[in-house]
Amino acid sequence: MKYISIIGSTGSIGTQTLDIVRSNKDLCVTALAAGSNIRLLEKQIREFRPKIAAVYNEEKAAQLKDSVKDLDVKIVSGMDGLLEVSTESTCSIVVTAVVGMIGIRPTIAAMKAGKDIALANKETLVTAGHIIMPLAKELGIHIYPVDSEHAAIFQCLQSGKKEDLDSLIITASGGPFRKKTTEELKSVTVEDALKHPNWSMGRKITIDSATLVNKGLEVIEAKWLFNVDFDHIHVVVQPKSIIHSMIQFQDGSVIAQLGTPDMKLPIQYALFYPQHRTLAGERLDFAALKEITFEQPPVDVLKGLPLAYHAGKIGGSMPTVLNAANEKAVTLFLNKKIQFLDIYDIIEDAMEAHKVIENPSLDQVLETEQWVYERIESR
Ligand code: NDP
Ligand code: MG
After folding, report:
1. Which one, of 305, 365, 328, 329, lies nearest residue 124 by Cα?
2. Tell me, what's the pLDDT at 135?
3. What's the maximum distance between 2 C-alpha atoms anywhere in the chain?
4. Which of the listed residues 38, 126, 205 should we mutate to test ligand 1's pocket, taking the one with most ligand atoms within 8 A of CB?
C-alpha cells in the first residue's frame, strides 16, 4: 500500500489524483487540504477517509468540522493546517496540487519530514527552486514532476545518461490566442482567455497558458528540475499537444514523449515511477492523425516567454517578482479589474522596479512576494 497526501485536493489536479486513487487499490489517502471548497472536500473525506483534512479558510474549517463530526477525521486550518497535512506521519508522498506560492512552505515541510513530492505546484519551484532542489539532494527526497512537459522530459531522460544531454525542447500549445495580434488582444475577455484548445485546467493556469506566462514558468521549472541552463532550454509551439516535450542528446538524437492530452498520465507516473501502469483513456490513433505541426512561439505579442527567460537569467529574487506579479495580475484580470494586456505591464513594472536579492532566503522570497503585492495594490 502506498499512502499519499494531497494539498489542493478540490482542484483540477487534485480531483484527477483522486481518480487515480479510485482506480489503483494499492493507493490510500491519509490527508487532504483545500482552500475553501468544503462541499467537495466533505464528499472527498466521506469517500477516501483521510485522517486529517485542512481548509485554509478558518471559518469554512469550522463549518466542515461540524458537518463531519460523525467521522474520525481531524479538521485543521490556516497555514498550520496545510503544514500538518503535508507532514502527516504515515504518508510517503505528497501531491502538491495547490495553486501559487502558498505551496512553498508545505512543500519544504513535507521534504523535511522525509516525504517524496509529486510536484504540480510549479510556482513553488519557480520562486524557491534554489532552496528546494539542494534540500531535496541533501535529504534524499525524490521530486516527481506532474506538469506534463516535465513528466515528458523525465520519461525521455530514462533513455540515456544525463551527462550526454544537450538540451530540453518544451512544447507549447500556444493557447487560445496564438494567432492574435496585439491590437486584437486589447479587447479579449476573461471568457475568451478561459477557452483553452486542448486542456481543461484550473482558472489561473488557463490564463497563464493564454499569456504564455505558463510556458515561461515551465522553462524556469525545468531549469530547476533538470539542472539545465536557460540557453539549453528551447520552446516550440505544437498546437495539438500531442508531443508533450522532447530532449536532445549531444549526438543529435531527439527523444520525444507523445500521448493524448490527459493529466492523469503524468499524475499516475509520478505516483508509481518507474511503472507505466494501465490507465484507461483514449490512445493516439496514428491512422487518424495526419500530421504534427510546429510553429515558433509568438514572443513579440504574447510576452510571457521572454519575460520569464529574462527573470530566470537574472535569477535571485527576480523569478519571485515575475511570479508574484503574475499571480496578482491574473487575479485582477479574472475579477475583470484589468485588461488582458495589462498583465504584461504589471509584470514588467514590478520587474523594473525591483532590486534583486541574490540567493534569497525563504523569508526574503515571501517578503518579495509581499512587496510585489503592495506595489500593485498601491497603483
Ligand atoms: P485549481 O485552481 O483547479 O485548484 C487549486 C487547488 O488549490 C484547489 O484545491 C484549491 O482549493 C486549492 N487552494 C487554493 N488556495 C489554497 C490555500 N490557500 N490553501 C489550501 N489550498 C488552496 O488549480 P489546478 O489544479 O489547475 O493547478 C494546481 C497547480 O498545478 C498549479 O500550480 C498549476 O500551475 C499546476 N498544474 C496544473 C495543471 C492542470 O492540468 N490543471 C497542469 C500542470 C500544472 P479550493 O477548491 O478550496 O479553492
Ligand atoms: Mg504544463
Report:
1. 365
2. 98
3. 62
4. 205
